[in-house]
Design a protein that fits this description.
Blueprint: H1 3-8, H2 16-28, H3 38-50, E1 60-67, H4 81-93, H5 97-104, E2 108-115, E3 124-125, H6 143-162, E4 167-173, H7 177-189, H8 193-196, H9 205-222, H10 229-236, H11 239-253, E5 258-259, H12 263-275, E6 283-284, H13 292-301, H14 317-335
Parallel strand pairs: 1-2, 1-4, 2-3, 4-5, 5-6
Helix pairs in contact: 2-3, 3-14, 5-14, 6-10, 6-11, 7-9, 7-10, 7-12, 7-13, 11-12, 12-13
Enzyme class: transferase
Function: Catalyzes the synthesis of alpha-ribazole-5'-phosphate from nicotinate mononucleotide (NAMN) and 5,6-dimethylbenzimidazole (DMB).
EC number: 2.4.2.21
Length: 351
């Protein structure tokens, strides 16, 4: 039994009783039943993940996996790997967009080199390889490399849980990763590449055509097995996707809720659920990505993203945007008056 298989066998479903108890308390707060909408769903998901209705939301972080993708050689992106390195340096300095956003709401950012071409010593070092291979010429990585990067994500989530972090957000930085994520989504969802491929950071019509053509070629050459998510990841994915996939698995192992960001994070979430379906109970959706694959993945997972800001920044920024929303919802949960406090009979559900 591999280390990954052994760890996956330890994952159990989220605590349904804790979710029910959380909802009961929400219904006891002096407000119309269900009036916080999806915020109540988020709180209940946190309770289920943590295994208690006494939810903990104070200490939060975002883990940003940095890696490079060989498929960039096919002209599927506007930039090259040097931009990944620049972003990683900015993440390490605490000046990137997601760092500033996280800091503004008291959260921490942890950038990880899980597979960059360049070396940026200021970030956490877990390099699997110096970038993936071009999947139009063969598998992006070996299966062993895919599992190693997944294990890195599990390790990162477990470490942050040991350090007392109560909610983890997923993020990524890597030129070309909307191509890898769209390719994986096409196979995992059984849809044509045209249905799940968008313009990423702003491709022209010609660039979009190259991107779709590269994805089709990669699928044709590598013949990924849709029923084996690790095979799909190894043949078409990126180390950043693998790291985030592992973080979702690690969150489930440590009973720590993990927030899904945009399309790349969504593909990682889908991959984790295909590896271990029980992981779904530990995931929290954040924002509606403009990429078509993300919309279809949310439908596949049965999740509803609560924020619709038109964001496409990456780095985990959409997931971090949910942090203050969670804080406000948790404040109501923990501090708002209940019906007895205002001498009003508790509302009852009529259906």
């Amino acid at each position: 039994m591999s280390e990954l298989t052994s760890l996956i066998s330890e994952i159990v479903p989220a605590d349904f009783t804790a979710r029910e108890e959380c909802q009961k308390h929400l219904d006891h707060i002096a407000k119309p039943l269900g009036s916080l909408g999806q915020l109540e769903t988020i709180l209940c998901r946190i309770a289920g993940a943590q295994g208690t209705s006494e939810i903990r939301t104070k200490k939060k972080c975002v883990i940003v996996y940095c890696s490079d993708n060989g498929v960039v050689a096919q002209g599927v992106a506007q930039s090259d790997h040097s931009v990944t390195s620049s972003i990683a340096r900015s993440l390490a300095a605490g000046t990137s967009s997601v760092c500033v956003m996280a800091s503004s709401c008291g959260a921490d950012t942890f950038p990880v080199d899980v597979g960059m071409i360049d070396n940026v010593p200021q970030v956490i070092q877990h390099k699997t390889a110096n970038g993936t291979r071009d999947f139009t010429e063969g598998p992006a990585m070996t299966r062993d490399q895919a599992e190693k990067a997944i294990l890195t994500g599990i390790e990162m989530a477990a470490k942050k849980a040991r350090d007392g972090y109560e909610i983890i957000a997923t993020g990524e930085a890597g030129i070309g990763n909307t191509s890898t994520s769209s390719a994986m989504a096409s196979v995992l969802l059984g849809l044509e590449p045209e249905a799940v491929t968008g313009r990423g950071s702003g491709l022209s019509d010609a660039g979009l055509e190259r991107k779709i053509a590269a994805i089709k070629k990669g699928i044709r050459i590598n013949k990924p097995q849709a029923g084996d998510a690790v095979d799909v990841l190894a043949k078409l994915g990126g180390f950043d996707i693998a790291g985030m996939c592992g973080t979702f698995l690690g969150g489930a192992l440590t009973h720590t809720p993990v927030i899904i960001d945009g399309v790349i994070s969504s593909v990682a979430a889908l991959c984790a659920c295909r590896i271990c379906p029980d992981v779904i109970g530990y995931m929290i959706p954040s924002h509606k990505s403009a990429e078509p694959a993300a919309i279809k993945i949310m439908e596949e997972l049965g999740l509803t993203a609560v924020l619709d800001c038109g964001m496409r920044l990456g780095e985990g920024s959409g997931a971090v945007t949910l942090f203050p929303v969670i804080d406000m919802a948790a404040a109501v949960y923990n501090k708002a008056a209940v019906f007895e406090d205002i001498n009003v009979e508790q509302y009852r559900r009529l259906s």
